[in-house]
């Protein structure tokens, strides 16, 4: 089992445990803040399970049907996860407003406090683990999962603080404000997940810094006259690079091929954690200019 698959199983198990505990306390206590945390844990569990299947499919090799592999499943999973997080935030905001107008009161505050402390400790441990896996694998789904649980840490701290203040002051408005604030923060945190996923699905070019490094590698080779049609994109842990290299027309195909191989190796050295798919087209002259001249 790969490290990223193991990470999704760990996060799914943790989410299931937290869901069971917080959902029971959230319903019986009447606290919007605890219920908000419980609903978020329910979504965490389903999202983590979905992520496991997304990673399993994304890791399948290219075949006759999917010539470039299934790497974009991870980006699709990120969009779906972000959407689910947004919807959960909207629901929690509704619950906070509902409690304000119906004047509900919180109960079982002592038990709620204990549950939130335990939840906070467990979640911090999970975020630390997911960040480790994310950095080691550069997996977008794990990165999204880590970000999601990181928001849970902040929300758990906020819930814990609100429970303490409600117990000390008996002001239920504090629970409403914290619950609504968590909901807004959840919606805000989902924006980056959705945005990044959509941009990858639309074949956004890789970071400008990486593109500039590729250009430097090409320009530094004296055998190459010029280049054109440099294109890049990402999917899961794969980075795709396409480029036309222009050589002197007298160079042999063998020598031109050797030069392109050296350039490929240097590009792959930019980030050895990534799986590079590089397609270089060899030109004996700048056919781009010729094509433009014929227009």
Task: Name the features.
single chain; 295 residues; mainly alpha; three-stranded mixed sheet; 9 helices; 3 strands; elongated
Explain this structure to me?
It is a single chain. By secondary structure, the protein is mainly α. It has nine helices and three strands. Strands 1-2-3 form a three-stranded mixed sheet. Strand 2 (238-247), helix 8 and strand 3 (275-283) form a beta-alpha-beta unit. Helix 2 packs antiparallel against helix 3 (72-102) and helix 3 packs antiparallel against helix 6. The longest helix is centred in the N-terminal third of the chain and has 31 residues, at 72-102. The protein is elongated and about 85 Å long. The N and C termini lie far apart (54 Å).
As residue ranges, the low-confidence spans are none
List the secondary-structure elements in sequence, H or E: HHHHHHHEEHEH
Task: Give the terminus-to-terminus CA distance.
Answer: 54 Å
Strand content: 5-15%
Mean pLDDT: 80
Count of extended strands: 3
Radius of gyration: 25 Å
Q: What would the principal axes of the Cα set say about the shape?
A: elongated
User: Can you list the strand order of the major beta sheet?
Assistant: 1-2-3
- Class by helix and strand content? mainly alpha
**Helix run count:** 9
